Amino acid sequence: MQVITSTEMAALDANCEYYGLARMQLMENAGASLANIIKQKFPQDTPVTIFAGRGSNGGDAFVAARHLAGYNVQVFLLGRGDEIKTAGARWNFSILKKAGTPIIEITDSTQIPEPDKDCVIIDAIFGTGIKGRLRPLESTAIDRINNCASKVVSVDVPSGLDPDTGDFEKAVRSNLTITFHKPKPALLRQELKTYTGELVTAPIGIPLFFERLIGKGDLERLATRKPESHKGDAGSMLIIGGGPYSGAPALCAMAALRCGVDLVHIAAPEAVSNIIASFSPNLITAALTGNHLNESDIPLLKKMIPTVDVVVIGMGLGKHPETQSALKEIIPLCKKAVIDADGLYALDFQQKNYSDIIITPHSYEFNRITELKTPENLNTRMQVVTGFAEASNTTILLKGKTDVIAKGSVAKINTTGTSSMTVGGTGDVLAGITAALFTTNDALLSACCAAFISGRAGEICHQKYGSGLTATDIIECIPEARNP
Ligand SMILES: NC(=O)C1=CN([C@@H]2O[C@H](COP(=O)(O)OP(=O)(O)OC[C@H]3O[C@@H](n4cnc5c(N)ncnc54)[C@H](O)[C@@H]3O)[C@@H](O)[C@H]2O)[C@@H](O)CC1
Ligand SMILES: [K+]
Question: Any idea of the CA torsion for 187, 386, 241, 343, to the nearest 10 degrees?
């Protein structure tokens, strides 16, 4: 059975909102499911006592109270109504008040009642939003629930239990836990069965496709810059590129800087390094030898690679045999790398000593390096890409009208972007964004968010420039695209 962590659930929730499925709709579905299951299990003459916290877990129970028409429902809110934290819970609480549902707001542990032993208790104190040590009010409420003989139904998670790790200081012992969308990891732990009781998973109307679709919720998971940061804390990277082409590494570097990375070095053949430096004073270049990367550059690169978080390899390097053979030695030296364009042909997928690599091919490159064929059909394409990601132990960002991103058995898709982005240089921009994010985030999240940001920046530019947009315009729109 698949599980979903609280972080993944929070991201999915934000993505649902971004794609138009409002939190309020999800809460309504959660509360209605809860009420329906209670109706199936308990006759109408069973009194229902709700212990609600001030988050959305409580909000689910307020909705359920409304759907339990005909039942005698009593609500105990731990705290005051004006302290309710989330808009959905506040909204549904105010409806209950107007509907005349008996509600008692509890501000002191001594006011927590002894529940009637014949009632069913709905435990909605907290779900996935639990943090830190229990406060006295909530702690006493958990004791009170555990010390009475009533049947207990927990909303989403038995209150007190960390939904991911299963750790707890004190938790509600439930007869039935109704969890939403998918079970949270701790709920499947056999040793916690005395807390979860019977487990029912209730769908709340989230399309499974939304689990694959990258959105605002993924961006919210990205590491953020701390106020006390020092130079380099927000990431440093090295681009090994240029040779036949000089613009490509510069675009990659400028995109990374606009994405918030602290330091970008470019190691480029001597013939083009000055040209690259002349594009912007923000670029730090190191001159390699000759016209194209070759084996005599390896000693310098061996010194530079360990000093950065991520190395980007490929853009503008060309396919000279000397370059390709130098790359075969350089790539395994990188602890984290983004490989694009000409760098892709130096990869040996039989070799397992690459540590953390994101590759960013388009379908032609993917077909050539994998000797597979990229299927037209999205589902089959996802299967092919995940199959290869698993076998090669790499993270793949397959560029296209719909991007497919895969690591291990997980496949995600990105639908941002416009047809005007077929203009030259957009791939270099995407590689720069990917590397910048990868300096402080894991490979899958970086690749997913980079695809989203790059496509969204393209959409913003398209509104301004139509089909005349350029790769440099996209770079300028990165900050706006990062905050959809
Ligand atoms: N994420 C989603 O997509 C959905 C979530 N829903 C519900 O929303 C819940 C999550 O809601 P929230 O994020 O608002 O969080 P919760 O309602 O789980 O808990 C947050 C509340 O508990 C308090 N709290 C946290 N730790 C505490 C501690 N140690 N001692 C005392 N009080 C503490 C907080 O101050 C806050 O008032 C889920 O478990 C689920 O029941 C549903 O409405 C359906 C959709
Ligand atoms: K709960």
Answer: 140
